[in-house]
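#struct-queue
[09:14] JT: dropping the first one here, sequence first, then the C-alpha cells:
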Amino acid sequence: MADVCVFSSVHDALDNRVFYREAQSLRRGGHEVTLLAVHPESGVQDGIRIIGLPEVARWKRPKLWRRIIQEAVALDADVYHFHDPELLIVAPIIRALTGSPTVYDCHEVYADFIRVKDYMSPLLRYPIAEIFRVVEPLLARLQNALIFSDHAIAESFESVDAPKRTLFNFPARFLIENGKQATNSLDDRPPTIVHLGGHERNRGTRLMINAFKAVHRCVPEAELRLVGHYVPEGLETEVRTHIREQGLEEAVTVEGRVPFEEVGDYLTEASIGWVPWQPYVKNDLNVPTKLFEYMAYALPIVSSRLQSTEPFVTNGENGFLVDAASPEAHADAHVRLLTNPEEAQEMGMRGQHLVDTQYNWDRMESRLLGLYEELLDGGV
C-alpha cells in the first residue's frame, strides 16, 4: 500500500468528489491518504489526514502554490493526485523533486467552462478558453495518469498517451443507504421542489423563478428551496430581487451553500429534484451530479433535455425531460408531479433503484484502485 497526497488550491477538503468519493476509496483500498486543500483547520477526519489551506481570492491563488509544493514534497508521498487545472504547472515540479507519479483529476471541460464565466468579459474569456483548449492537453502530457468525471471530458484528452480512467460522480454507497433509510417510511412528502448545487446564469437561475411562479399559481402550497452557492457573487442579489419582484418571498427559500453532510436533510424534505441547466456546450456535455443525489433520495426529477441528462432520465419512469429554455415546460412537469403524488413517488423509487444497482460509486472505486495499482506496480 502507498502514501497518497491529494492536493487542491480550489476545492474544500470536504468536497464531495475529492473527500467522500476518491479519498475514502483510496483509504478503503489500504492507502494512507493526506489531503492538502482549502479548509479552516488541519486534523484527521474519517481516517483522512487534512492539511488545511486558506481560502484566498482567485488572483492570490498562485501564492498558495509555493506552500503546496513545500507541504507536498515534505510528505514524500508515493503518489500525488491533484484536482485543479491551474496546478498542471505545479505538479511537474513536485514530480521532479520527489520522483513520484502525478495524477491529474479533471472535473470539467474547462475551455467550455471558461466560455460561460460571467465575471470575465467576452472579449477575454473566449480567446482564453480557446488558448486553454490547446494548452491543457499539452500540460497533461507531463502527468503520469489522467482521471475524468465523464466521457465528454475524456474526449478532450484523446491525444494524450497516458493511462486514463473515467470516474462518474455517481453517489457513494453511504449516501444511497442514507437515502434509502430516510425515505423508507415517507408517504406524504411536502410539495417542495429542491435545486441542489451551484447557481449560475447558464444553469437557468432566471428560468427557475419564472417557471416556479406558474407552478405556485397552480399549486399555491408549493415551495422552492435553492441550495447552493452563486457565481458570480452578485447573482444571489439578482435572484433575491427577482423573487421579490415576482411576489414569491414566502414560497422561495435561498439557502446558500451547505455542508455536504447536511444535503440529505434537504433532499428528505423535498418531493421533486430540479435540473434547469440551459443548452450551453458545457452543460450539454457535462453530467449534473445532482441527478444521482436526487435519485438516491427517491426524488422524481424535472430536468432540461440535454445530451448530458438524456442517458439518465427517462420520461415517465424516473422523471421528466423538458425543453431546456421553456419555463412553461418546466412548470407543467412540476405541476403534474405535485398534483399526482403517487405517480411522483413511484418515479422516485425507480430512480432510487437505478442508483442502488447501476449509477453508484462502487464500480468507480474499483476503477480508481485499479489505476493506482498500475501506477504503483511501475506500469506508468
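[09:21] JT: and here's the second one, same format:
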Amino acid sequence: MGWDDSFRNASGYFLFLAMLALIKFLADKVKAARAPKPCVHGQFGKCPACQAAIEERQAEALRMTRRAHFECEWEKLRRSEVKRLSQKRLRSSEAYFAMEPREFEDAVMIVFRKLGYKVNQTAFVGDGGKDAIAWKNGKKYVIECKRYGMNSASGRRDLQILLAAKHDVEADSAIFVTTGRLTTPALEYAKENCIQYYDKGSFPDLINSAYGETEDLSEVQTICLECGMPTVIQLADDENSVGLCFNVTDEDRQRTPVGLRPIPHFVHTTINSSQLRYPDLDLDAPWCKDHQIPMHRVKGYRGEFWGCPEYPQCKNKGGSATRPPEVVESEAIARRTEITNVYSTIKESTRERLRNKIEAELIRHGIQKMFTPEQITALVVDRYLRGRT
C-alpha cells in the first residue's frame, strides 16, 4: 500500500467521523428542542402561576370585548335618549318658559304644525311684527311669539303691532303667544279686535292640545359599561349625568371579600338638559358662540365643516364636520355584531349557496382579491336580507 492509498483511507475515516459527529450534534439539538423546558418560574410541566396568568389574559380579553360591545350599545342608547327626551321636552309647557327667544319661537311653530297649521316662519330679525304666517281650513293667520319672564307683561303696543301686521298681509286672524302675562288694556284690546292670545295661564292648554299630558324629564336611561345592564339616572342640567348601577355580576362576587357587599358600578352619560333644547340637534354639532344655537353641516370644496345657520349674517365656523372616530368605531362594532348575529341564524346550506354565488360573481368581474372574508360575509348577510324583503 502506497502513501497515497494510506492518505485516502485516513481522509475517508476522518470524514466518516465528522459526519457521525454532525449527526449526533443535530440529534442532540432536536432532542433538546423537544425536551420540556422550565417556565419563567423554573417549573417543568404545568405551572399554576403561568396557568393563572394565561387565564387572566383570557379574562381581560373577554372583558375588553364585552366593554367594546357595551360602549357601542351605550352610544346608540345615548343618541336615542337625546331624541326621545327632546321630543318629550316639547310636550312640557314648563320647558318653554326656560327657552331662549329664538328657541321658543321655533318650538311654538312646531306646536302649531302639530295642531294642523301650515306654517311659514319669517326672519328672526326685522320680521315686521310677525314671526310666522300660517294657514288652516282655508284661513290665513299671523303669529307673534314673545318669550318674556313669567312676571313680565305684554302691553297694548305689542298687540297693535301684531294687528298692523295682520292688515299688512291681509290675514283673517292674529294669534299672540307669550310666556308672560297681558296687561288689562292689552286684554281689552285683544277682545275688541278678536286677537287670539295665549299667556302664562293659557299657554299650557295650547301645549296639551298638541301633545297631550306633560312628560317627566327628570330621568335618563343609560347602560352600565361594567355589566351592560340598562340603568335610569337623574338628568343633570349642564354637565354629565351620573349615577350608580347596583347589578351584581359573578366577577363582582369573586372580587368582593366574604361578608361584604359588592361595590356598585359607576355609570354616566353625556346627556344633560342643555342638549334637549333642539329636537333635531345633531349630537356632534358645536354651538355658535354668538347666537347660542347648534351649527349644521355645510359641504365646502375642502370637505364638510360646521357653519352657523344664520349665515351670511354670521360667519362663525366650527372646524371640520367629519364624524368623531369613536362614533364611527362604535357604529362599525354594531354593524359587525349585527352581521354576526344574522349570519349565525342563516342555514348552513343557504350560507354556502349565497357565498358560492357571490364569490363566482366577484371572480367573473376580477375583483375577488379586493374583498376580505369579513366583507364577503357581510355581502352574504345583505343578499340574504334583501332576498327576504
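[09:30] RK: nice, looked through the second one.
[09:31] RK: Residues 346-389 form one domain.
[09:31] JT: good to know. The longest strand covers residues 139-146.
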